[in-house]
Design brief:
single chain; 444 residues; two-stranded antiparallel ribbon
Length: 444
């Protein structure tokens, strides 16, 4: 049955190899079960419910990808997008998390429409390649910055804006140790290195004093339990911004950013993982790309309904591909393991910030590695790219980073008398950001 459903023989693989690959992918991305709730809980959402929803959406979305495309690609709430949801939309713009979920849903509807009509290619082409890379790098710096902040390594300073924390304190020392340990594990290509790093720091936290004399990690009352109820956030999305003109004008750029980041993240992951698996054609096109993007857009709708930020394809799926995964059975295996992990929610909830912070830093480093693809020798390319990379973490906003980069690219193209460097749609998007930044009607 599995052979007929997933075409195992046709893809030169076996059930055993696919199961092993699925376990490998799970080990590489299981950190999201701890990190995603830790980030989204800053919005006031229930952390236990977030653990449940993170696992459920990852499992269902991975299963959808498997059945629609038969690709060994797993999905889960995306890093970077969850930071944008929390720190830009909710905390930065003051949008209630239920309204933010409504924006995620609208983004999913638009993404699905663009995926089935082919318009998505035009939007993607409107953003220069260097800026796409810069957005990825900027988000990487943003995630790493948040990790260092959560771990107490970076703190606020009235004179210098930021400064270093107390390295001698238990939580900060643990965080720094976790960064080095996880770096070593990842550099040695240890499967599940990030997850191992989280586990080791969490265990050490039992013996290291934290605030008020309590240990950094507190023992749970139980190890195995039924999954926490998702009811506090399940189907709690609202759409008040659609009926309020001012709120709608605030929401449009945020939804646009969600859409752009969602598309670029998914397409980049699809190309990277399928290239490793040998699915990419010689001309660079991907078979069943439309189906894959439809699966991604359905996952976005699912995430909003269930109560989390956007679910995306995970680059960690490449670990499973390296282990031999070639079909959707790999993704299904990962999905089943995500569901089993729900019964260990008490263990996930005790993981301290000192343990999840190093994971954020390492993920940020991964995302920054693509900076070598930007041609810094061309000043007209370097300026928008560097502005984007710097602005995303320094303004604490992915949207404003993308906007500044696009505005710079548009003005440089005009100033250099090379307007064709940017498609017409690129100028339109830049104009929207420009109007928002300078509060030009209707953004007053």
């Amino acid at each position: 049955m599995l052979n007929r459903l997933f075409h195992l023989e046709q893809n030169n693989t076996t059930v055993g190899r696919e199961l092993q690959a699925g376990l490998t992918t799970f080990a590489a991305m299981a950190y999201i079960l701890a990190v995603n709730p830790a980030i989204l809980a800053n919005t006031g959402m229930d952390k236990g419910a977030l653990v449940t929803v993170t696992a459920l959406t990852a499992a269902i979305a991975s299963g959808l990808m498997a059945l629609i495309t038969n690709y060994p690609i797993a999905l889960a709430p995306g890093m970077g997008i969850n930071a944008f949801f929390t720190f830009t939309i909710v905390l930065g713009k003051g949008v209630p998390w239920s309204e933010a979920l409504g924006m995620v849903f609208v983004n999913g509807v638009i993404f699905l429409a663009l995926s089935v009509t082919g318009i998505r290619e035009k939007i993607i082409e409107a953003i220069p390649h260097a800026l796409k890379i810069a957005v990825t790098c900027g988000i990487g710096l943003f995630i790493a910055f948040i990790g260092l902040k959560n771990g107490g390594v970076i703190v606020a300073n009235p004179a210098t804006f930021v400064s270093h924390g107390n390295f001698a304190s238990g939580p900060v020392a643990l965080c720094l140790f976790g960064v080095i340990l996880t770096s070593i594990l990842v550099a040695r290509r240890v499967t599940g290195g990030i997850l191992i790093g989280i586990a080791v720091v969490t265990l050490l936290g039992l013996f290291v004093p934290g605030e008020a004399g309590r240990a950094v990690t507190e023992l749970p009352t139980r190890v195995v339990d039924l999954p926490a109820s998702a009811d506090p956030i399940f189907f709690k999305l609202t759409f008040g911004f659609l009926t309020d003109g001012n709120a709608l004008m605030l929401a449009l750029p945020l939804i646009l950013t969600l859409l752009l980041v969602d598309m670029f993240d998914n397409i980049g992951t699809l190309i990277g993982v399928t290239k490793r698996a040998g699915f990419l054609r010689p001309d660079g096109t991907l078979p069943k790309a439309g189906r894959a993007l439809v699966a991604d857009s359905l996952a976005t709708l699912l995430s909003a309904l269930f109560g989390t930020s956007t679910v995306v394809s995970y680059i960690e799926s490449a670990a499973g591909v390296e282990a031999g995964g070639r079909t959707g059975l790999t993704s299904v295996t990962t999905a089943v393991l995500m569901l089993l992990a729900l019964f260990f929610t008490p263990l996930i909830l005790i993981i301290p910030a000192a343990a999840t912070a190093p994971a954020l830093v390492i993920v940020g480093v991964f995302m920054m590695q693509s900076v070598t693809e930007i041609d810094m020798s061309d000043f007209s390319i370097a300026v928008p790219a560097v502005l984007t990379i710097l602005a995303i973490p320094l303004t604490f906003s992915i949207a404003e980073g993308i906007g500044l980069g696009l505005i710079a690219a548009a003005l440089l193209a005009i100033g250099l008398a090379q307007p064709k460097r940017l498609p017409l749609l690129g100028y339109v998007i830049a104009a929207v950001f420009f109007a928002q930044f300078f509060r030009i009607w209707p953004f007053r």
